[in-house]
Amino acid sequence: MLNPQDLEKAKNVQLGLQQFEQTHLPMKEESNGEFMWVCPTCDTDFPCERMMMFMVLQGLSALSAMVPSGNMGAMLSRFNKK
User: The pTM is what?
Assistant: First the structure.
């Protein structure tokens, strides 16, 4: 069972991630008749460096959640050709 302190930490992490996503969401801008997606916080093309890192980490996190826990070396060695 989780204690209230752990739940509060998890809640704060989630709120921080939501704030990050809201500040780095792309906005559609028109420049010279062309539409571009830009990060309003970083003022660069979307995805900005911060959002790109965030998306990569989310992908790695989702991938690692799919891999069974345990010794990764032993698991990957099953696929090693000898």
Answer: 0.58
